[in-house]
Amino acid sequence: MIRKILKGIALFLVLDIVIVLVYGFVQYPKAKGVQHFTAERVINAPKDQVWEIISDVGNYHKVTASNINHVEIVEGEGLGMKRVCSAPDGSSWEETCTLWNPGKEFQFVVNTQKEDYPFPLKSLSGSWKLEEIDATQTRLFLDFAYEFKSPFLSGYFLSMGTEQAEKDTEFLLNNWQRLAEK
């Protein structure tokens, strides 16, 4: 009886592994190379007001989803600034500001090469850009560029990650919009 149960568990595990590998193979073309996750939002507030809110990068953890619970600026401000973002599980990663155009746009590149980097990504960067529609409306563009370390196995994570990124980005945009439109 115990032998049958162990065989059943082993068969279940083998089938799970096969399903993950097949799904990864099917998703491989989607996960190969640099990918982009983009979002945009029209905010009913002047551009300067929106900039003031989104450029408060040291307090990012106060408006973003629950996957970031602390942000610390460890060096500089604006271009070249370094910050460390921490997750509730204790993992953290370092980001460097590679573009800082006040009132218009900024970009952070994540140091994915650090030994303790917690995600299966070869590269990751995020860009935030503002466009004035008129004196009372601003369009905010977000563009996150990323590349998986292993595209074959990461095809499996692409669907799950995209769904979570959409939820987290919606949460962030809702918070920024609420703050700007007060």
UniProtKB/TrEMBL annotation:
InterPro entries (UniProt xref): Polyketide_cyclase/dehydratase, START-like_dom_sf
UniProt keyword list: Membrane, Transmembrane, Transmembrane helix
Transmembrane parts of this sequence: 9-26
Listed SUPFAM superfamilies: Bet v1-like (SSF55961)
Domain of life according to the entry: Bacteria
Coiled coil: none
The name this protein goes by in its record: Coenzyme Q-binding protein COQ10 START domain-containing protein
Species name: Aquimarina atlantica
Lineage: Bacteria, Pseudomonadati, Bacteroidota, Flavobacteriia, Flavobacteriales
